[in-house]
Design brief:
The structure is a homodimer of 301-residue chains. Chain A has 301 residues and is mainly alpha-helical. The first copy, chain A, has a single domain (9-298), classed as Orthogonal Bundle (Farnesyl Diphosphate Synthase), CATH 1.10.600.10. Helices cover 72% and strands 1% of the residues of chain A. Chain A has helices spanning 6-24, 33-41, 48-60, 66-90, 107-111, 113-131, 140-154, 159-169, 176-201, 206-233, 236-239, 245-248, 254-281, 287-298, and strands at 100-101, 104-105. A two-stranded antiparallel sheet of chain A has the order 1-2. In chain A, a hairpin with a 2-residue loop joins β1 and β2. In chain A, α3 (48-60) packs antiparallel against α14 (287-298) and α7 runs antiparallel to α9. The first copy, chain A, starts with 5 loop residues before the first helix and ends with a helix. The mean pLDDT of chain A is 91.
Chain lengths: 301, 301
C-alpha cells in the first residue's frame, strides 16, 4: 500500500475547495456586496474546517456516492463561509478592531464598515443556501441534518455564544475550565461540527459519530491552545495578522494561565487524546484525520 | 358561515407566535447574549411576516396535520428572527445609526455595539435552527425546502443584497424601476418567502405557490410604498421610530420620486394587484390573506 502523503492529499482537496468557493461565492451579488464577500473568503485561510469535513467523510466511507461527495464539498464550503463571516465581524472596530487579516487589510478597512457588516451577514446566509441545493441528489434528510448541525454549531450555543463569553471575559481572571468552556464554544463547536458533518455526508453510524465528536473536541481545544502560543511566539510575517493582540487586550489565554511550557504540554496531551479517539473509533486507517491532528500541533501560523 | 374577523384571527395567532418566540429565543444564551437577542425580538413589532406565513398556510389547507402547524409556526418565527436580526444590524452606527426602534432604545444603544452585532448574528443562525428541529415529525424534505427558501430570501440575492443596493443608493437619483428593484430585494424577498413558506408547510401545489408569489410580490412593494408615505406623514408616537429619516439621509423613496399623491395611488394599485392574484389562485376564500393586503394599505405605523 502506498504510504499516505498528507501534502498531496491536502493540495488536491484545497484545489477542489478553492474552485468550489470561487464558483459559489458569487461575484454577481449587487452593489459591491459580492466583491466584499469574495474578498473575505477567497485566496486566504488555512481551510482547516473544510479539510476536516473532507477527511472525516473519507474516513467513514471507502466508496462515496456522487451525492456524498457533493454533500461533503457543500458542507466544507458552508463551514468555511461561517468561519469567514465570523472573522469579518470579529475584526470590526466595535469588536477586536483588527486592521490586518491573512496579510491583507481587513474587510471593513477595504470596503467600509457597513459593507463589511452586510458581507458577513450574507456569508452566513449563503452557508445555508449551499446546504440546500435545488434539484440535487443529496437526500433531503442529509440536507436538513447538515443545516441543523451547522446552525447549532454556529449559533448562541456554539460559536456566537463563545464570542459573547469572550467579549465578557476581557480583563477577567478565568479558570482553566472557564477558558476551555469559552473556546469549546468559540472555536471548538465549528471544528467538532466539521468532523460530524463529514460523517453525516458519508452516512456514518451514530457510534462512529460519537468517536469523531471526541476527536473533534480534543482537536478544537488543541487548536486554540496552539493559537494562544503562536500569539506570543510567532512574528507577524508568519501569522499574517496582528500578534500579541490578546495580551494587549488583556484577554485571558492558555499561555497567560499555564505559562508557555504548560500550554505546550497541554497541546500535546490534547493532540494525543484526538489520536486515541480515532484509534478507539475503529475507523482504521484514517490517515488524513491523523495528519490533521499532527498539523494542528505543529503549525507555525 | 360566520364572517371572518381579522382582529380575532390576528390576536389568536399573535398570541401563539409571541409564546413560541418567548420559548425559542432562549434566555440561556451565555454572557448576556440571550438578553440582547430577546430584547431585539420580544414584545414588539407588527409580526407581519409571521402572520403572512400562518395566513398562507391556512389558505392552502383546511385541515392541517399537526406537523404542518408546527412547520408553519417554526417558519413564522424563523422569518421574524431574520427580520429582527436585519433591524438590529441596520440600526447600528455604521449603517442607519438609529437610536429608537419600536419606541425603545435600539439594541446597540441598550447593550453596546459588539453585543448588538453578535445578537444579530445569532438571531440569523437561530432561524435555521428553528427550521431543523431534532426528533420532529416535520418531513425532512419540508425542513430542507424551508431552509432553502429562507436562505435565498435573506441572502445576497434577497434582503442582504437589497441592503447593499440601499447603501449604494444614498444621494443617487433612482428611476421607479430601480427603486422597485431595490425594495423587491430589501423587503419584498422576505414577504414573498413568508407566503411561500406557509404554502410549503401546507404542501401546496406548484401552481398555487406561483399565484401566492404574485400576491407576495405586490404586497411587498405596497408595504414599502406605504412605509415611505408614513416616513413623511406619521408622527414619532405612532411610528415608534425616528421619522423623516430617509429624507434627512438623502435616500430615494417612492414619495421623493412620485410625490405623496402618486405614491398613494401606487400603493392602492399594488394592493389591488395582490387581491387579483388571490382571486386568480382559486384559493377561495383566503380571508386572512385578503385582510393582510387591506391592512398593509391602511396601516398607520
Amino acid at each position: 500500500m502506498t504510504p499516505f502523503n498528507m501534502q498531496a492529499w491536502s493540495q488536491a482537496h484545497l484545489h477542489t475547495i478553492e474552485q468550489a468557493l470561487q464558483h459559489w461565492v458569487t461575484p454577481h451579488a449587487p452593489a459591491g456586496l459580492g466583491d466584499a464577500m469574495r474578498y473575505a473568503v477567497l485566496d486566504g485561510g488555512k481551510r482547516l474546517r473544510p479539510l476536516l469535513v473532507m477527511a472525516s467523510m473519507e474516513a467513514c466511507t471507502d466508496q462515496p456516492a456522487a451525492w456524498t461527495l457533493d454533500a461533503a464539498l457543500r458542507a466544507a464550503c458552508a463551514m468555511e463561509l461561517i468561519h469567514a463571516y465570523s472573522l469579518v465581524h470579529d475584526d470590526m472596530p466595535c469588536m477586536d478592531n483588527d486592521v490586518l487579516r491573512r496579510g491583507k487589510p481587513t474587510v471593513h478597512v477595504q470596503f467600509g464598515q457597513a459593507q463589511a457588516l452586510l458581507a458577513g451577514d450574507a456569508l452566513q446566509t449563503l452557508a445555508f443556501e449551499l446546504l440546500t441545493p435545488e434539484d440535487s441528489d443529496i437526500p433531503a434528510r442529509v440536507q436538513a441534518r447538515l443545516c441543523g448541525l451547522l446552525s447549532r454549531a454556529a449559533g448562541h450555543a456554539g460559536m456566537a455564544g463563545g464570542q459573547a463569553i469572550d467579549l465578557a471575559s476581557v480583563g477577567q481572571r478565568l479558570s482553566a475550565d472557564e477558558l476551555r468552556q469559552m473556546h469549546r464554544h468559540k472555536t471548538g463547536a465549528l471544528l467538532e461540527a466539521s468532523v460530524v458533518m463529514g460523517a453525516v455526508a458519508a452516512q456514518a453510524s451514530h457510534a462512529t459519530v460519537q468517536h469523531l465528536l471526541r476527536y473533534g473536541r480534543a482537536l478544537g481545544v488543541a487548536f486554540q491552545v496552539v493559537d494562544d502560543i503562536l500569539d506570543v511566539t510567532a512574528d507577524v510575517a508568519d501569522l499574517g495578522k496582528t500578534v500579541g493582540k490578546d495580551a494587549a487586550n488583556d484577554k485571558p489565554t492558555y499561555v497567560s494561565l499555564m505559562g508557555l511550557e504548560g500550554a505546550r504540554a497541554e497541546a500535546s496531551r490534547l493532540a494525543q487524546e484526538a489520536q486515541n479517539a480515532l484509534r478507539d473509533s475503529g475507523l482504521s486507517p484514517a490517515p488524513a484525520l491523523e495528519a490533521v491532528a499532527d498539523w494542528v500541533l505543529q503549525r507555525q501560523n
